[in-house]
Write a structure and sequence with these properties.
alpha+beta; Glutaredoxin; 4-stranded mixed β-sheet; two-stranded antiparallel ribbon
Amino acid sequence: MSIYTHPIATLEGKPFDLEGLKGKAVLVVNVASKCGLTPQYTGLEELQKTYADRGFTVLGVPCNQFGGQEPGTAEEISTFCSTNYGVTFPITEKVDVNGQKRHPLYGELTTKPDAAGEAGDIQWNFEKFLVSPAGDVVARFRPTVTPDAEELVGALEAVLPS
């Protein structure tokens, strides 16, 4: 399987071309606007600014499955992200990351174990998956691992294409 084969839409409802991410390192993150971890948007945007020129992007994937913390419409989510955090990285449509309606992208991502060897369901908002330029899921970081954490940044720098 490849993460590039799973259709997903942009936040605006247009098809998002995951194939266009081939050759880049990608950090896929299930995001939410009303979570205690929402300030991680700042660190995610810093990663985007720091590494975008070296073949990297964050991919934000809104999800409302954890405490109803992403209740907004697409327009509300977009406005929140740009106004409060200056987000420049792509954000997809809101999807389920767990359960019977789990988006196929997350069906694949959640097979990757974290540092403790645990795979399976997403635990909370802001769980992160690092995908290599070849499309391999190379690391999983649980929600409390911040975007500037040494283990995340080190893993990211190890897979940058340039």
